[in-house]
Fold these 2 entries.
Entry 1:
Amino acid sequence: MNIEVMDFSGEGMSRVYENKKWTVGIKNWKPANDISGIDCLERHNETDELFILLSGTCTLIYANENAGKLDIQAVKMEPFKVYNIPATLWHNTVTRKDTKMALVEDSATGSGNSDVLPLNGEQIARIKQLAK
């Protein structure tokens, strides 16, 4: 038996380890997470998701629904701290080309139990303001 070593250096996210219970991914910059490309939020309806900033810069965008409107907020991530996104919380990441993060989530998390919410121009402008 040997120790396995996993890595991912491409654009976007790759699940580098997965078992029946949980998965570990590496998330790098991709155009859709750039400040100029952000256009949606997502949520996972059954499971939490954890992010850890390893290098670079990331602003974690999140939103709660209040009276049919989104209250969009942001957290500037700090390296090596664990950020938990609770199930059903709308979220996305705004990254730069030098960003590398680790993520941990339930291995059953996927499109069947997640939603994507397209953003309007006003919401995108709010995110750009928060992610400056």
Entry 2:
Amino acid sequence: MRTFPSRLRFWTALLVLVYWSAIHIGPAAAGLAPSRVSGVTQIATTRDADMVVVQRALENKVVAQKLRDYGVSPDDTKLKLATMSDQDLHTLATASKGLPSGGDGAGALITILVIIILVIVILKLMNKEVIVR
């Protein structure tokens, strides 16, 4: 018992063949997108670069909380940064480069947990037994 007549099968096969051939023959147009200026860059001097580094360090939750604990408001901090000398600002920026900019480590903890779960799932799929003591 045939579901399609032979003429319909022939034309369907021919249509699919032409369609697939057109897809594979078409030229590939891949490449890098050209870069564009996204905005005006505010960093023109080393002072501006140091200011950006210090401001990112001040966005850290731990640093902001410690400053609040000592009674320093964010407005006072910005005012003091604006009046600092170039040398003092550079020293502060150099000292704050080791701090994470805005994060508190939760992302790293989640990544480690996901890796551990992935390893356990792979071991289970390989029929290996996971024993935690």
